[in-house]
Amino acid sequence: MNSITAKIKNIKIEDILCIIIIICPILDMLSYVFRNTFNTSISPSTFLRPILPIAIFTTVFFKNKIKKKMIIVSLIYGIYAIIHLYIYTQIMAGCSYGGVISELQYVVNYTFSIMNLFLFAYVFWKKDDEKLTKSVLILFAIYVLSLYISIFTGISSTTYIEGMGYKGLYDSGNSLCAILCISLCIILPLLRNKKLMPYVLAITILARNIFNITCWDKNRPFGIYNYSCSLHSSRMFYCNNKQTKNKQENNRVFYARFCTYNNRSGSIWFANF
């Protein structure tokens, strides 16, 4: 019991932020399940998504010497939000699909996005970002594996009414694509890590082989995916080829080349599909 208490006390803010990243796919799936099963937009993620950043933001506010700056920036942003909503009410022409409440919801969503950006930038500034990168790798793996499971069990939703574009238990295929493509830019440099390289290779190839060929539409995600893989892998080849002093390093180069070849050959095949 004492050891557990000691571990809890040793949890840092960056650990909590990493946990938030890891549970994002789970919160997304909960939102989808509650919306489509219980016909409600309220789910556990409705409360957890705002509460966790607010709690961390409050902690940073009271434990650090940037209170005045945070207050000034918050006031400026609050004034902007009020002016934004006021202008919106003046220019509404009846063509929008939502009213002031919908616009307020967008403002709130952007507010939390900016808050999260600030928290991650401030907490991880000039610190080792290994935990952060590993948490993104876990996030990517959860998204990919959950898509596999939903497709093979037949419970996956689709982007189009014709049944095309499997997107698993997630509401938006476009958002899912954006998250995965951005995550790739973060996790691919981990190919330099000897311990993590096999996991990065496996989950990356799984993602390409299934989702970019059979699940998503043919244009946006596949091109971004292959460009990201080729760019990062080529940079890694250049660095490794200058430092291949032993067999282990040569193996790393071989596996990385295999990954890039897999992506490029797949893109050529898919372009003619």
Summarize the structure.
The protein has 273 residues and is mostly helical. It has helices spanning 2-9, 13-37, 44-63, 67-91, 100-123, 130-152, 173-187, 197-215, 220-241, 247-271, and strands spanning 157-158, 166-168. β1 and β2 form a beta hairpin.
Low-pLDDT regions: 217-222, 264-273
Percent of sequence in beta strands: under 5%
Average pLDDT: 76
Q: What Rg, in angstroms, do the CA atoms define?
A: 22 Å
Explain what this protein looks like in three dimensions:
With 273 residues, this protein is mostly helical. The protein folds into 2 domains: 1-127, no CATH class; 128-273. It has helices spanning 2-9, 13-37, 44-63, 67-91, 100-123, 130-152, 173-187, 197-215, 220-241, 247-271; strands at 157-158, 166-168. A two-stranded antiparallel ribbon has the order 1-2. A hairpin with a 7-residue loop joins strand 1 and strand 2 (166-168). Helix 9 (220-241) packs antiparallel against helix 10 (247-271). The protein is globular and about 50 Å long. The termini are far apart.
Attribute tags:
mainly alpha, 2 domains, two-stranded antiparallel sheet, 10 helices, globular
List the helices and strands and how they pair.
Elements: H1 2-9, H2 13-37, H3 44-63, H4 67-91, H5 100-123, H6 130-152, E1 157-158, E2 166-168, H7 173-187, H8 197-215, H9 220-241, H10 247-271
Antiparallel strand pairs: 1-2
